[in-house]
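[step 3/7] inverse_fold.run input=structure_tokens len=96
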């Protein structure tokens, strides 16, 4: 069953965040990640619980692959850049 990494990001340093994006994508792809959404326009319908800022959606073959990507040593340094240049919420969700 595929799993999805969903990230909502408020970018605080656009130039620095470009560095993060360039480094994160190939790592995700090595773990089978496929970017489906990367900051497209949001048409917000309901926002009772959450008002997203910038959504990234990456599909992985399964939860184990998504966790392996997120928990990998190679991504740890890159994730630090995300935390430096943006505020974010990240989750892994099982899909069909």
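[step 3/7] decode complete -> sequence:
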């Amino acid at each position: 069953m595929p799993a999805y990494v969903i990230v909502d990001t408020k970018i605080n340093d656009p130039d620095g965040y470009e560095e993060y994006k360039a480094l994160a994508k190939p790592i995700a792809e090595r773990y089978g990640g496929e970017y489906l959404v990367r900051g497209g326009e949001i048409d917000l319908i309901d926002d009772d619980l959450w008002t997203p800022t910038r959504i990234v959606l990456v599909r992985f073959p399964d939860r184990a692959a998504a966790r392996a990507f997120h928990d990998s040593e190679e991504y740890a340094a890159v994730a630090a850049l995300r935390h430096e240049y943006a505020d974010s919420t990240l989750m892994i969700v099982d899909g069909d």
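[step 4/7] annotate
Residues 13 and 58 are 22 Å apart (CA to CA).
Residues 3-42+52-94 form a domain with the Alpha-Beta Plaits fold (CATH 3.30.70.100).
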